Amino acid sequence: WQSHIATLKARAKYMTAKQYAALQFLGPGTNLTIGLAEQHRWDGGGERTRGGVFFTGNLPTEEIFCLPHRERIDGHVSASMPLTRSGALVEDFSLHFEHGHVTQVEARQGKELLQNLIAIDDGMGSLGEVALVPYSSPISQMGILFYNTLLDENAASHIALGDGLKFCLQDAEKVSELEYAARGGNKSINHIDFMIGSPQMDVDGIYTNGSREPVMRSGEWAFDV
Question: Which of 1, 21, 74, 180 could form an S-S bond across to 185 if both were Cys, CB 3.0 to 4.6 Å?
Fold first, then answer.
């Protein structure tokens, strides 16, 4: 576990150093560009308490994650796993985003539930997290839907509707709520993850000048650390 967590930390450090302006996800039913918050940082593997004690609060853990820019999300995305909520399932669903907000919802089952979740407040129509997980993760390979986000989120790359992860800003402890919003952070009373990764998913990192480079190919990391 120590070796695995160290690798996650190294991947997060690599991605933070890149300071991509956006990520583009391309896969079956998905062509989504997610802008990243200004002066963001990637995290994963564990955190430190205010007293400096390192801990990993969610095991198993396979993700590195970051803060999207709430106004710079465009395109469409299809979920690769059902969303479980209050004992109900939302299945085979997709969302369309324009300028950071959901403009269209489709689902084979649970469409009304998903629409109601998005309507809770203004922030639920945008994103608060983007996370990368390789398809080869052990949770993915088990092929089990656990009906528990803390487990299921380790099976696939995912995004989250709603409240953003403020600690994914550099010098987050010094960032006021006004600066958090100015950098692109989203606010909501809720935070709901859903899975979008698959063995067909490619992810590109896009710089401010428009140039790009591979981050993931066919659901796996495209860079070494």
Answer: 180
